[in-house]
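Example: DNA-directed RNA polymerase.
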Amino acid sequence: MSDVHSATKSEQYKNEVFILLDKAKELFPLSEDLLRDLQMEIEDMTMLFDEQSMFKSVPNIIKILIRDYDVSAKDYLRGMELEKDDIELLSEFGQYTIEALIVHVLGMLFNPLENYSIIRVASLVERLEYSVRIQALLLKSRRCKKPFSMVKDEVEKVKFSGKERKRSKLVIMYPFGSGLVQFMEERGLITLTSDLIGTVRVQKKKGAYFLPSNLFALCNFDISLLPIKLNLPMVCPPLDWKSASQHGQEPRTLSDLSGGYLSGPTGEIYDRYRLLSTGDIYNFYIDIGRDNNYMYLCSVMNKLQRQPFQINSDWLKYIQINEDLFVEYGYLMPKFLSSMNIKNVSFLLREFYMKDEVINKICSFNELLQTLNKSIQRARYEQLIIKLAIAYEGYKFYLPAFLDFRGRIYRSGVLHFHERDLARSLIVFADCNSMESRKKDNVIAAAAFHYKPFKSVNNALLWYYENKLQIESNSLLFTLEAKRNFQFIANQIGIFTGKWNCLPIIQDASASAYQIMSYFLLDESLAKRTNLIPSPDGEMQDVYSFLLEELKEFMKAELANNLSTIVCDIIDRKIVKGIFMPIIYGKTLMSTANDLKVHLSHFITHKECYEIASVCFKFWRTKYQGIPCLIRLIRHIGWIVSARNSPVFYRVPFFTTVQDYMIMEPINIWVYDRLHKKRRRVTLRVSSSKRDRRKTEISTFVNFIHQKDAHIAMCVVEQMLSIGAPIYTVHDNFISTAQYSDLIPSIYSNVICNMDPPLSVINEFIYMNVIKPFVKGNSNKSSMARKEISKEMLHYYLKANVPENISKKMMATWEERISGILTSYDNYTRIVCGDLKSPNPMDLWIAHEKKWEKFKLKLRSGGKGIPNYCVHY
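Written out as structure tokens, the predicted fold is:
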């Protein structure tokens, strides 16, 4: 921190938070009130839009925008053809507020850790338009002294201002966004350019194609001068999430809850800090408006975000002392790279490149520049993480939690377990109790798995003790081949110093999507391959290794000898995972073929890559018939609901997910390019009022699985919290301490065992989306869920979904979809009930329950005396 006084004003601004945290350490220990005051100051600096601080911190950029004899941005916009309400909106701003807002928006759009000074004009227009409108509304609410709750609906409506404006030549679309881009270009802050270098052809039918022409804004200033806007950890507990509804009303959606950061929502902060992380909260949200569901959700999230963390001081000091060695071994980039100006250094690089005949024959200048760009970006990231760690050292800090519309848990910022290896390695749990010495093996095993994968924990422990002397003699040299270098060394330091009780133990659900599929299909073989049912040999199973071996055998039978020999020699687990992990989420044959070209094009032709992809899909349909059957069933229902012009609903205990994809329609606006003296077209895509059947069909199964995955994770978290265990979750990763880490696999298995029978979950999904809209009065949903839906009943309600007055072509499509659902549901019930021919639907349900109980018994008893690896290191 000592060099901050000689730094530029911009650098001083960026270091203000670090200086603030550093100075407060002189008053340790801080009271709760002082910590809250400190947190408010941090949020004011990093989250809020403050006009005065912007003028002080980025004077060089402000000077470009504000000139003595030129009009301000506010007057510039007034000179355009605006509607009356837009002119009134501008009156809320001060003379130069919009200039400061422009810089604020640029700070939001350009990642301070990256080095790219170019952005799509469409993105810039959209963000500027939205920011001006929402900031004006919030300024108005302050002037009128209205509470935030009274303007919340107005704030949400801002997002729809663009698409609700009339499609008329008399009305300018996105007037503020397009006007401010033109203003920035005229002031020389940006240059408009059409960059087609490296553009990928967009294929059309019958071999035709076109090159998409995007308009970009190139910054004419050093983007490192922009203010950093980061979501930082909190030094005091986050506000509990609770109802923000008025007049005793119960909240219906997550937007009706308030909590997390201490600051009230201002500007785009309203979008960035709320429990629901999804952008379009009208089309994608969580419904909690029944049976006080919000109280359960708030309880789990509040306990989760009140878990304190701290910086791993021993590891941080080790990095600081050995920084030169870390650079020498390649773990860290040289520090000086983080302060490089890529715009200035690129001219020097080109000069040296042109003079060096050896280098310019090996690679192009663009490749060399790109390598330098990545190195600078990586160096900036590393230095920021280390600076943050130094600043937060000594504090207990907290990580506010957020959800997406499927219920998946996220954290914001750069210093948390969602981040890369370096950031993860610097965080440990706070307030940990001492543990039994035998728990140390959990830490050692976790450390070994940071180095490489093993078949079992015993193998990991054996490997560690065999290599212990080498590890201790030179950790940095030994760790060069490690999978996660920083976390491996951090764990070693904790083991060496005996401070391992607070180290985070990270465990991952074993191919969680396939685990969930095994539950829905009651497929014991798939459950064993994903470790949901423990293996008798006590070793971890890997579903992708099984798929690799089976695929090779299938290819030998399907392909010509020469081709199959070449492909089988090259294809590996990584390629197979790249095919069969996304395939359950809707990856297409053509997309798979394109991916295979990357790996195999040096050895086989593009046509053969497509042939290989076709064989992979045939293998999938032939060997794993149940999975494509279930995928078709869920996706077809998604299509039916969207084609009926309704949203799709997904239900789990305590909340319902609502998904409503709309067609994004192109809207053209025009900005004047002063340099080239011509108008430039900018195409923006805005949500229409028409539902997107194709997107809904593709996404329905993805979101269906992700919601179940999120619910399982939330239940695991709830049970861990109930026993007072420290816990953190990253989707299907679970992070705890050595004392509790070995409890997570059994808790995970029990959560799945406590789920409803899979047929009832599928039936409920069908009921909510296909049957319920056409049932009159109060129907007994539970009785319908707990029996097989007869073919006649399902066909009746599917036909009821067909809109009136549709074309013959569309009617044929509907008939095809209905037939697909009937066939898929029939095949699915045969899989989960057995091939029982009975006219009584209850007989099939009884058979299903027996099969479900047998499956649960395998989950619960299969691991007696055998390690449970359903969640593993």
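The radius of gyration is 29 Å.
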